[in-house]
Amino acid sequence: MKKLLASLLFSACALTGLAHAGALDEAVKRGTLRVGMDPTYMPFEMTNKRGEIIGFEVDVLKAMAKAAGVKLELVSTGYDGIIPALLTDKFDIIGSGMTLTQERNLRINFSEPFIVVGQTLLIRKELQGEIKSYKDLNDGKYRITSKIGTTGEMVAKKLIGKAQYHGFDNEQEAVMDVVNGKADAFIYDAPYNVVAVNKAGAGKLVYLDEPFTYEPLAFGLKKGDYDSLNWINNFLHQIKADGSYDRIHAKWFKNTDWLKDME
Q1: Which one in 27, 134, 160, 259 has a CA-CA gap of 20 to 30 Å to 70?
Q2: Is 239 domain-assigned?
Q3: Biggest alpha carbon distance in the chain?
Q4: Which long-range contacts (CB under 8 A, 24 or more apart) does 63-68 make?
Q5: Do 159 and 90 fall within a single domain?
Q6: Does residue 96 sit in the same domain as residue 60?
Q7: Bridge partners of residue 166, in order along the sequence
């Protein structure tokens, strides 16, 4: 009987231990925080001339890894497969400019938002004055585009469903579709569009800068990993209170020096 009780107690302790072993605990044991991201989203995560992944979210993640006392490992992953990759342990957390949506939240947990953005439009210059908002594009004569698997695509299909839609695997291809006159508008997050209109627009795009959605961006974790969520949320509170967040934000959103380092 004593052996049976001891065995049951041991099993209970083991299960309890497993229940509390989250992504951050594993990262600390390993010495590395593995973050899945698709490095194509200016200025959050992107690849510079030297092949390095840089950006606003990357710097936030560097600060996170430093606070946890571990190294940061960025795992480049296609955006449309990034949630399945998390669920199959390819990395510890998602840090890829992901909008916290109710649909995604059914599959994974999210931290508190680290920034809020909204969808905006890049339109062909010839349509200036004709297209004043996303509502004007909701017509079968227009062709719109965005990146596959993003909220830009979701919004295009939901709010501009009458228009012809064609998505691309990355943002730049979609933008170039508008630049080359094959599409009429590109739907995407404001921080990306404000850079792309000058970097890739070639004078052929007009930026309609009024966001028409509310999109909180957050870090994604496996469901049930509440210890890691608690740690990340407290980390975000800390950097927003001590000025670290503001310095990182100013580097990428109030300064354009980083553009010189891009291809």
Answers
A1: 259
A2: yes
A3: 84
A4: 63/235, 63/239, 63/244, 63/248, 64/33, 64/232, 64/235, 65/33, 67/235, 67/238, 68/24, 68/27, 68/28, 68/33, 68/231
A5: no
A6: yes
A7: 145
Query: The pTM is what?
Result: 0.85
Measured CA to CA, the distance from residue 41 to residue 10 in angstroms comes to 48
Where does residue 119 fall: left (phi above 0), alpha (psi -120 to 50 degrees), or beta otherwise? beta
Give the residue among 64, 94, 36, 54 at the shortest CA–CA distance from 251.
Answer: 54
Q: Tell me, yes or no, whether 1 lies in a domain.
A: no
Q: Residue 224: left if φ>0, alpha if ψ -120 to 50, beta else—which one? A: left
Query: pLDDT, tens digit, for every residue of 104-156?
Result: 999 999 999 999 999 999 999 999 999 999 999 999 999 999 999 999 999 99
Q: What are phi and psi of 17, to 5 degrees?
A: -60, -40
pLDDT of residue 16: 40
Pairing of strands 93-94, 32-37: parallel
Are the C-beta atoms of residues 196 and 175 closer than 8 Å to each other? yes
- 32: phi then psi, degrees, rounded to nearest 5: -145, 130
Contact yes or no for 197/122 (Cβ under 8 A): yes
Structural domain range at position 192: 119-208
CB 43 within 8 A of CB 253: yes
**Number of domains comprising the chain:** 2
